[in-house]
Amino acid sequence: MNNELQEKINDLQDLESTNKAFIYKERQRNDKLHEARKVLPELLSNRTNIGLKRMGELDPKAFHDTWKSRFPHDEAKIQATTLCSSRQENLKNPDWHPIFRRN
């Protein structure tokens, strides 16, 4: 029982050190992000056009544009929304791997 307790204590210490390493890395990234945000306004002018997009999120407008040439407006909206949300759910699944074939 003492051996099991010692193993659990060792496991807990390992997890704590891993957690501290993650916290340290997160703080470093936050510091870099904070520095970048300070510099960003200096780099931008009134004519600068930067678009931001979240990684892993699909653009529903692209689906709608594709489907509106195949279906009436209301039906295209439904089809595009359905397909986009199913693809978005697939992207969240780490076991899903789309296969793209080239002819």
From TrEMBL:
Positions of the Factor of DNA methylation 1-5/IDN2 domain: 53-99
Name of the protein this chain belongs to: Factor of DNA methylation 1-5/IDN2 domain-containing protein
GO biological process: gene silencing by siRNA-directed DNA methylation
InterPro entries to which the protein is assigned, alphabetical: FDM1-5/IDN2, FDM1-5/IDN2_XH
Superkingdom per UniProt: Eukaryota
